[in-house]
Amino acid sequence: MLWSTSLIAFLGAYCAGAQTPPSNLPPATTGIFTVQASVIINAPIEKVWNTLLDFPSYAQWNPFVRSQVVTSAIWVPLEDQTPHENQRLIIQAQIPPLPMPVDANTHANPLHMQTSFENITTLDRVQHRAAWRQIFLPKPVLDAERWQALSALPGKRTYYESREVFDGPVGHVVDALFAEGLQAGFDAQAAALKARVEQ
Ligand SMILES: *[C@@H]1O[C@H](CO)[C@@H](O)[C@H](O)[C@H]1NC(C)=O
Question: Which site among 88, 104, 135, 192 is 20 to 30 Å from 52 CA-CA?
Answer without folding.
Answer: 135
